[in-house]
User: Fold these one by one.
Assistant:
Number 1:
Amino acid sequence: MITYETWDDVQKPTFPIDNNEKGALHVLSWAYDHYGDDLLYACSFGIEGIVLIDLISQVRDDAEIVFLDTHLHFSETYETIERVKQAYPRLRIHLQSPSLSLAEQEQQFGAELWKKDPNKCCELRKIIPLRQAMTGKKAWISGLRREQSPTRQHVEFINLDKKFQNIKVCPLIHWTWKDVWRYVHRHNLSYNPLHDRGYPSIGCAPCTAPAYTEEDLRSGRWAGLGKTECGLHES
Ligand code: SF4
């Protein structure tokens, strides 16, 4: 087992697959062999998450998966999670809540913090909870794809993650939007019905609108707020 004492000890391992390959299953096999239970998948249960869960279940059917439950998600997202739990009963899926309830957040920061200061809201309801969920973990998995947005074009399979001081494994970097949907339909996977109503990227309800541009599938997130990422993927 690898143990990191400090951030200086975190080294990016040599990965045996060329970055030009799409081999997500190979990446996942390598990652679970390498990190075992010190590997966590932080899943948003969007369409990439549905693909990754199916791939992960083929490699580690009792893998640990966390969903950052901001208490602000669409009801369709919670229903999707329940269906996934039933389809993969051995996976250890749990919901990580922020320490502040919505009422406590309103008391301390005012109503609808996501409108006034979305970065603070994401920090309280996503970043700190993920940090807590990753306590003791050496690596985490994310469904980032290079095609998703200009900010994600340089993501690699294995990344040093300065924000969380560990390794971020991104098996889907070379998958296109079509690859994702081809996989979902070929395997008849259940997914969030909001995808069929114009939402390619689904986050918290107050910060997610339909996206009308194929150039940036995340354009419906934080629309009009000058923000494109929740902060989980910034180093
Ligand atoms: Fe808050 Fe919006 Fe971030 Fe959700 S996506 S945590 S509502 S700012």
Number 2:
Amino acid sequence: MSAADKVKPAASPAAQEPSAIAGNISYHAQYSPHFSPLAFGPEQAFYATAESVRDHLLQRWNDTYLHFHKTDPKQTYYLSMEYLQGRALTNAVGNLGITGAYADALKKFGYELEAIAGQERDAALGNGGLGRLASCFLDSMATLNLPSWGYGLRYRYGLFKQRIAQEGQEEIAEDWLDKFSPWEIVRHDVVYPIRFFGHVEISPDGKRKWTGGEVLSALAYDVPIPGYKTKNAISLRLWDAKATAEDFNLFQFNDGQYESAAQLHSRAQQICAVLYPGDATEEGKLLRLKQQYFLCSASLQDIIFRFKERKADRVSGKWSEFPSKVAVQMNDTHPTLAIPELMRLLMDVEGLGWDEAWDVTNKTVAYTNHTVLPEALEKWSQAVMRKLLPRHMEIIEEIDKRFREMVISTRKDMEGKIESMRVLDNNPEKPVVRMANLCVVAGHTVNGVAELHSNILKEELFADYLSIWPKKFQNKTNGITPRRWLRFCNPELSEIVTKWLKTDQWTSNLDLLTGLRKFADDEKLHAEWAAAKLASKKRLAKHVLDVTGVTIDPNSLFDIQIKRIHEYKRQLMNILGAVYRYKKLKEMSAADRQKVTPRTVMVGGKAFATYTNAKRIVKLVNDVGAVVNNDADVNKYLKVVFIPNYNVSVAEVLIPGSELSQHISTAGMEASGTSNMKFSLNGCVIIGTLDGANVEIREEVGQDNFFLFGAKADQVAGLRKDRENGLFKPDPRFEEAKQFIRSGAFGTYDYTPLLDSLEGNTGFGRGDYFLVGYDFPSYIDAQARVDEAYKDKKKWIKMSILNTAGSGKFSSDRTIDQYAKEIWGISACPVP
Ligand code: Z57
């Protein structure tokens, strides 16, 4: 059936009334045709609806751009190699306040909005927490009317799709642009040249210029980001790489040399082909560095263009004004090349001297650190850098030299520390550039992402710099957008919150949630709360059945751990706990079993393709599930499910339906965590260590409403030493759980190497670096306290309510407001 059969097409962009909206959807189905005319199934309906919504977004985008242009405020540019946007339709109509109108319009075609929204593919241009944080930040920037944009890369294939096969995880390319994305707008007039390789030429007057090599083009795609209940819409500008017609060698092509004729075109395609290509090989490393430079160079050229565009007299000179109009935030060290690139553009293109360029750069850029794990602190080979970016390497060497001179001349007492503080590590075996050191030396501010993490930065990782620049270091505890992560993903609970607070203002003023505290014992609220949770649990159970074929009981305790699979996050401890629980259930009498709290343990997450132990953990969860779930003696009391292909839209189903969630990293290793905030906001109780933002969540929700266990961050180093020195005596329960797996209870796969990683480093073990053995007994004890608490329904629901009530601090609106005031120096610029 064609759309026109149902509703007459009408080109009424940004229509507000259901019938006009339906006409506009019908218009897009026919006049922005991407499908053959007679088809109007759910998929076609999604694309036509999205294009209709895009009309609204574009209008706001244009108004906002013009308003910023006229007002000329200081603007922030968030540079990130990752954005985990997920789906956009529900969020867009929700933020614009037109959900009801679009739902009614779609009914005229016989469709439910929710089902149509489910047609959308996730935009997964990120790996995990860091990318999703960037997306939450964009939502808050737009909502707070802040002049700010995001810059990223338009990867052809986003984060891989995970499939679980007999051998464990398989990776499949995720084709998010198949068929196309209705949200991106290509800007054919926003194109910048990006050079790679080549050499530095020195003119007679000593000026340096980078030439030669290969030059590609960066082409802009804008994804409009609407704020909640505001006219402002900001941009996520994604760069794609292109070669031009001039780069196409027609002579070679006519000669039959098809591949070499289009060599530059295929090199351009490689740049944005995939997110985070494996960097184990030299080729892979070079490509990753190319991506980073591509993002930085295109974004800075664009920023400088806009700085000039906004006032005619900036075309030459006025560079001292630049930091009062531009703030650049580097999301981790991945965009560090923004530093030498801004220096290069200012000196070689705009003609500034070193000191002036340095002053501008320093006042413009700031750096967020997201990890203290040494393997994640980027170090680039000086040789690779010199080959790909010869001029930038010169600039980095000069920064390094001047930093050393500064320390020597002003801080005699620090001379012994200089080598480790330097930007360059000139170890003759492998000379590298230390990107984090470059960020600290060049940026005006360095921040961590939770109190504990920021303190570790000051006391350990960056301690030496602290005495030189005591005011450079800050904390900005992460946050999440309450729109996506409560209002839109959990409409049942949202309605209850609105009803009891007598306002829906909490959606943009999350601190209002504390108003729920006074109803924490109210029986009527308890009944409504429990009903909403049950509805979400049923939705979750349906998802699990759909994707795994496993039936789970919505009356059991839903216990969830979803995040990237990593040894420091200790999914292995979770599964050892489940194995221990299973063994005890097997040993019990049938009568005793009936007193046990039934539990469904769910684990989800992707393992990096070459991370062997992470992949073994995925396999183990699946193997344990296969045995437990089919064991008729116990499967009423325990199920273990691996949730495949965890991503943003799966999280939106799992989090509302969760009752207990696990955030159990080795203390000091998880910089913040952000899903912990999402769970708590949705009335889920946390079992966790004193790590990252857990510390602050526990403070806010109250220690009675958080199941705490495990070593503290300041004990970890000593405990590792003890373990090394053979002073650790493992708990028998820990030994029992490992032994049960070693005995082959979960199949024939050889888990020896995985389990050996938990043994002391005497003989075959690898030292249990993540202290699973030390924390296991207190973890099991905490789980026993969970079981007891869950038996008391009233108590549990009260804990749940108090978690939601205590989550106000973790709104990304609060986080972004602090960045705006304390790092960027920008203020709201609402479209009138
Ligand atoms: C990433 O997702 C995070 C840190 C990194 O260094 C990289 Br690379 C990717 C995460 C942290 O592990 C989380 O603890 C944190 O909540 C998140 O970044 C956002 O700050």
